[in-house]
Structures are given as C-alpha cells and as structure tokens.
Design a protein that fits this description.
Blueprint lengths: L7 H5 L9 H7 L2 H10 L1 H21 L4 H22 L30 H12 L18 H19 L16 H6 L7 H13 L11 H4 L4 H15 L32 H8 L3 H16 L17 H14 L1 H9 L4 H14 L6 H15 L2 H6 L19 H15 L8 H11 L8 H14 L2 H6 L4 H17 L5 H9 L1 H8 L5 H13 L29 E3 L7 H4 E6 L5 E3 L31 H7 L12 H8 L5 H21 L4 H10 L12 E6 L3 H18 L16 E3 L1
Antiparallel strand pairs: 1-5, 2-3, 2-4
Helix pairs in contact: 3-4, 4-5, 4-6, 5-7, 6-7, 7-11, 9-11, 9-13, 11-14, 13-16, 14-15, 14-17, 16-17, 16-19, 17-20, 19-20, 19-21, 20-23, 21-23, 21-24, 24-31
C-alpha cells in the first residue's frame, strides 16, 4: 500500500545503512522487485525517487560535512543508479523525472510550486555540486582532513556512475536518423544552467589525459594495491564521450581557420553549439593543451601494446574504445587540434595502436565496432596531406603483430595490416573494404618508397579483386579495382623515383593489367565467370600472397569466444556519403568538387535504393537510374550483371598510365635479362631505380582526395556504438543488464 512521503522513519531505512557498497544495493534490490513496485504501487516508486533526489539536494546544500551525511548521499546515489534504468525502460514513466513534484517547493506552501524545478534538473545540479564538495570529492583547504585520496576518487566515481545512468535514457529509444532528438539530460547538464559546466569539462578531460596506468613502473604494482584512479578514469571517459554526442553535420561547422562557413552578411560570430562541452572542446587552442591531450591519449592507447619481459607485470587498461571515440570527437569538433596532431610525427603514436587494434580484432565478430571506429579515424586523418607525408617515417618500433616481418616505413605497416584485414578478416568487414582502399588512395601521392612486401600486397589485392567472378558477383565490387588503379597511378605519376619496388611488382604482375584491359563483356563469358564463384567459396584467395614468417612474439588474431556478448550496430553510410571529393591544386590547397550526379532519383525509385550495405561511389558508375537499366534484375529480384553494365565501367578503367609504363619498361627489362643472363631481382631493381619516365607518361592527372564529411548517418552510428560499448563495459555493477534497451540488440557470438 502507498506510504506517505512524510513517513521519514520508513524512507530513511533506504539510505541510513552505513556498510553498503554499490554491489550490495544491486544485490538487495532485485530487478523483479523494482518492476513490481513500478506496476503495482507506482506512487511508492515515485516517492522513493523524489526522496532520494531530495537527500542529494540537501547534501549538496549542506556541504556533507559529516561522515553520516556523506554515507546518505552515496547510498541515495547507488539506489538511483539501480532504479533509473527501470524508469527509462517504461515509456509511461519516462517523463516522470521531467515533471515537478507537488509540494516540492522550498517553503512547503503552494506559492512555490510555480518555480519548482523538474526532478531531473534538481538531480543533475545536485550531482554537479557534489562533484566539487570539499572533504567528499575534493580536498579541502583545511589541512586536518582525515579523508584518504582513495575515498575522494571512489566518491567521484560513484557520482559519475549516477550521471552516466541519467544520460543512459538514450539507450531506451530506438535508433532514428532524426538527429533533433537530443538527450534532454545531457542537454540540461551541458547548458548554462549548470554553473559547474566549465570546471567539470576540464576536470573530466584532465583526469583522462593525465592518467598513467603504469605509474612508477614497479612491476606487479597493480596486483598489490587497488588503483582507485582507473575506475574514475574509465567513468570520466564514458561521461565525456556521452556529453559530446552531438551531430556536427546539422550545425554550422567551423572551417579550417576557425571561421564559419557563411555569407559575408554574417559578420558577427555565430553562436557556438548550445552544448557547452562541445563548445569548450571546439575552442581549445593553446599548443600546450593540445600537447597534453595528444600525449595523454597516445600514452593510454599504446598501453595494451607495451610488451614487458615479465608476463602480466604491467597494468593493461581496457577502455581503448572510449579513448578512440574521444579522439574522434576531438578531431571532428576541433580542426586546430586535427592540424596539431598532423603537424609532427606524433600522429604515428596514434596510428600504430590503431593498426594494432585493427589487426588484432580482424577475426573477432564481437569487435566489429572497434574495426569501424579505427578505420573512420584513419579515413578522417587521410583527408589531410600531412598524414600521407608523416607515413614516410621509418617504422622501427617492433610491436609484436601477427603480420609478415618487413623493413620499411609506417606506410608499409598500414598497407600490410590493411591487406591482412581484407584477406583474413571475417565476412562482416566487407563493407569496410571501400574505406580501407580510400585511405590508401588518399595517402598514395605522398608515399616516397614502398617496401617490396607492401608492393606485393597491393598487387595481390588487385589480383584478387580483378578475378571475373569477383567483378561480376556484386554491383559495387569493381570500385575496389578502380581504387587500386588510382593508387598505382598516383605513385607512378607523383612518386616514381623512389618506388622501384612497386614498379618491379607491376612489371612482374603485368598479366593482371592486360586481363583487365581485355575483360570479356559478352553474356557467355559473364556467366562463365560467375560459375567460378561456386567453386571458390573463399572471398579472396590467399594463395600467391607470400606471407612469410609473422613477427616474433605475436599471437594470431583470434575469433570471439562462443557466447561473447556483443551489441548490434546501425549500418554505416556508403563511401560516397562518408566522403566528399576534393582536388589538390599545384600549391597544395584543396578545392571541393561537386558530386557529378546530383539529379534526383526517378519516380518510383526511392533514394535509398542503394542500401548501406552496398556503398556506391560516383566513380565508374552511371548515375543511379542508368545503372538500374544497365544491370537487369533477374526474376528473383536479385541483381544480375549484363554486358552493357560491364561495358559501362570497363571503358572507364584508368589503365593508360600503367600500360604506357609497361610498354616502355618491359622490353628494356627483358633485354637486360637476356643480355646479362639475369634472374636476379637486385640488378633489375637497380636498373629501375635509375630509370626515368619523364616525358613518356600521359600528363599527370590532378590528385583527388576523398575527405570525410560529417553526416547524420555517422552521428547515429557513433551513438549506437558508444552506448553499446558502455553497456558491455559496465558489468560490476551491471547497470543496464537485462533491461529493455531499444538502441541496439544484445547478441551472443
């Protein structure tokens, strides 16, 4: 039966107990009971929430000077963390925290009801106040404090956990492309209503970036002392990325020099985003701040790679996915930070860990999200010329990775890892192939000298992607060949001199280019090509890829353990929606190119005819309506290749430069071999090193870069990915486990 709100003796028993932990609260308050109270005595649940918030507000106002007050605040905090997800999962309750509670006015009289705050606002402001409460969450100026640093850290962690739970209402709404449905909890917390917004933002960022998990480097240190800091850093990283969940494609985004894209009429600075956290993040500009952030993120990302001679002697952090989301937000919202990252070879301290994670997760279905974010970050970086230039730095760090041993640059490392992902990753990574090759295209004009291993990998990919069955078996597969040809053309035209290894590999595999030039287009050959598919189920043959020995100390990439939990993700937009073409002019500046086919789709053909699973790049394809006509749909509704369709893109294959190179160099190489009886690569390479094609090649084509552009599709992807990570990582206590989340599905591998 309903209990009166004034019955303090009854309500106080919920938070008066001294010896509880958050785990105790989760054990003592089972899910079934919360749901039963919600259905059968809603007024009691409402009173419990209201009373718990009231205790937090009182604690914030009084300053929590006694041990008892601090205990009450922590218990209310744990109780609300336990109950909130069950409020959010029921649509009828979702508005409850945004309503005002009758009689909650300060004076107790009716006249105060007018300006009573919604419960959610009171709760958020109390938590913000409590996070800066002397002797509770921060050191006080009085020297006589008896409270240990561990207590401060764990109190902060519990308050941040409650904050994250408040923000998690987003998990209970299905994914929608409408970016206007901003999270009201985050919106209020990051608004000017919160007087602590700036100190909170800087504190969260400082806590994450200053953390050094290895500490003083005493081996096995982490096994002897409990580290109160790591849970706080994880919680801070999670709260930070959730508060920065903001769709930048809908806003006026600052351009390179910090001004906004607008007309000359807008001479006043446009107001930044209402979300103060996004606003502050986008306005960080001091070099030393950038250095601090970059060093901190790089140190933490590299932590899992640090190999020690004593097994398990160093602490390994687990929150690299949150760090990658944070790094993405920094680069996406603050262009000055992006340029700072690319200004020196420090960017390689971010690149190497990302390549390590990509390589390590390639066979694991439960880590598809990690693969995507890693590739997205590299796509964003590759849109800037400096990234390609930085890749020429020799790679000497020997992080044990399950890839062939090579001597070369960071560009070689990137190509070798991408080859490994494409040839030995799992099936669900196929939508990423376009992105991976776009990154290679973007950096290719700047690569001074590829190693023989990397050159062979690129040619092996071309060989695999240009088999007839692969080209004819899906409507977008030929794009991969176009990307690879563009890579070869960029290197031959702009970096011929240092790339004798690649030129040699092209000469050795010249038959692949001749076969492409002579690709059959008649129906019979198309059918024959498709027949071959049935005999080779493996998507890409791994033969003729001389993998050689893997690096010492590396473990092969393993699939997920059966039963591993994973969360579903929304589809990502195709590469044509993810990127925008820019042309690099002589002086290195870029200008955006309008997409070629912007005409509306014909009637009766919805714009989404090209699904997210089949990226469509404007290259080598007719505009959509032509493509519909060129590739006949067979009776089963399945797409089928036709001679007209093959002709439509075969005629556009950019083979001129390579054919000219072969025409000039093959006879010369053959002559040397006959004259000197050579079978030795090194002599031929020496000849190619000194050769030149000046004046013999077609006029160099302009360099095309496909730069990442923000869009609501990726904003939604980031939201589902981020909350999925947070859901899975919060297991002790399991805050959201077994509640009815709608943003994603929980699946078992």
């Amino acid at each position: 039966q309903p209990v009166e709100a004034t019955d303090d003796a009854f309500w106080d028993q919920f938070w008066a107990d001294t010896a509880t932990s958050v785990q105790d609260v989760f054990a003592l308050v089972p899910a079934a009971e919360i749901r039963a109270v919600r259905e059968e005595s809603p007024s009691n649940l409402a009173t419990l929430c209201y009373k718990a918030v009231e205790k937090l507000v009182q604690g914030a106002e009084s300053g929590c000077h006694t041990e008892k007050e601090r205990q009450i605040v922590l218990n209310c905090c744990r109780l609300l963390t336990r109950i909130l997800p069950y409020i959010f999962e029921d649509p009828d309750w979702r508005g409850f925290f945004w309503s005002t509670v009758p009689g909650a006015g300060r004076g107790g009289g009716d006249e105060d009801d007018e300006n009573a705050r919604p419960l959610a606002e009171s709760l958020l402001l109390a938590v913000a106040d409590l996070l800066f409460c002397p002797d509770f969450t921060v050191q006080s100026h009085r020297r006589s404090t008896v409270v240990s640093l561990g207590f401060f850290l764990s109190s902060r962690t519990e308050l941040l956990k409650l904050l994250l739970t408040c923000f998690s209402e987003a998990m209970y709404l299905p994914p929608s492309s409408d970016s206007s449905n901003a999270n009201p909890w985050v919106q209020f917390f990051c608004s000017t209503e919160n007087r602590h917004a700036l100190p909170l933002f800087t504190s969260l960022l400082n806590v994450v970036c200053a953390y050094d998990p290895v500490g003083y480097g005493i081996p096995y240190n982490h096994l002897l002392f409990s580290d109160y800091r790591e849970p706080l850093v994880e919680e801070a990283a999670q709260v930070l990325i959730v508060t920065l969940d903001y769709d930048s494609s809908t806003s006026s985004s600052p351009t390179v020099d910090g001004t906004t894209t607008g007309t000359a009429m807008d001479d006043v600075d446009p107001p930044g985003p209402d979300n103060l956290f996004v606003n502050y993040l986008s306005r960080i500009h001091r070099e030393e701040d950038f250095q601090f952030i970059l060093k901190g993120v790089a140190r933490l990302l590299s932590n899992p790679l640090v190999q020690t001679y004593l097994p398990n002697s160093a602490k390994k952090i687990q929150f690299h996915q949150e760090l990658l989301v944070l790094f993405w937000k920094l680069c996406d919202f603050n262009k000055k930070f992006l340029f700072f990252v690319l200004k020196s070879s420090d960017v390689l301290d971010i690149l190497v860990p990302i390549l390590y994670f990509l390589n390590d997760a390639r066979a694991d279905q439960s880590r598809v999200g990690l693969m995507h974010i890693g590739v997205f970050i590299l796509l964003l970086l590759s849109g800037e010329r400096n990234f390609g230039v930085r890749l020429n730095k020799p790679y000497s760090v020997r992080v044990p990775m399950d890839i062939p041993v090579f001597t070369g640059t960071h560009a070689d490392l990137l190509i070798i890892v991408f080859h490994k992902i494409i040839t030995s990753g799992h099936q669900r990574l196929q939508p990423l192939f376009d992105c991976l090759l776009t990154i290679v295209v973007n950096v290719s004009p700047y690569l001074k000298s590829l190693s023989m291993v990397a050159a062979n990998k690129l040619l092996h990919l071309l060989e695999a992607f240009s088999t007839t069955w692969f080209l004819f078996s899906a409507v977008q597969n030929h794009h991969l060949v176009f990307f690879l040809l563009e890579v070869f053309n960029n290197i031959i035209q702009y970096q011929f001199d240092g790339n004798s290894n690649l030129v040699y590999a092209v000469i050795r595999k010249r038959n692949v280019f001749h076969q492409l030039a002579n690709l059959p287009t008649d129906s019979q050959s198309i059918q024959k090509g498709l027949q071959r598919k049935k005999k080779t189920p493996e998507p890409i043959s791994r033969t003729n890829s001389q993998d050689g020995v893997s690096m010492e100390g590396s473990r092969p990439a393993a699939p997920a353990e059966p039963g591993t939990l994973k969360t579903s993700l929304v589809a990502t937009p195709g590469i044509d929606k993810l990127t925008e073409k820019s042309q690099v002019s002589e002086d290195g500046t870029m200008r955006s190119l309008e997409p070629e086919s912007s005409q509306p789709p014909p009637e009766g053909n919805p714009p989404s005819a090209v699904s997210d699973g089949e990226p469509w790049s404007g290259e080598a394809s007719h505009p959509r309506r032509d493509r519909r006509r060129l590739s006949s749909a067979s009776s089963s509704g399945q797409w089928a290749p036709t001679p007209e369709w093959v002709m439509s893109w075969k005629s556009k294959l950019p083979l001129q430069t390579i054919m000219r190179l072969l025409q000039v160099l093959v006879p010369q190489v053959e002559k040397i071999c006959i004259d000197k009886g050579l079978t030795d690569e090194s002599e031929i390479l020496k000849f190619l090193q000194h050769g030149t094609l000046v004046g013999l090649l077609p006029v160099p084509h302009p360099i095309l870069i496909r730069k990442y552009q923000a869009n609501s599709g990726t904003a939604m992807w980031f939201r589902t990915y981020m909350w999925g990570v947070i859901y899975l990582r919060n297991v002790d206590p399991p805050i959201w486990y077994d509640t009815d989340v709608k943003l994603f599905e929980i699946q078992r591998v």
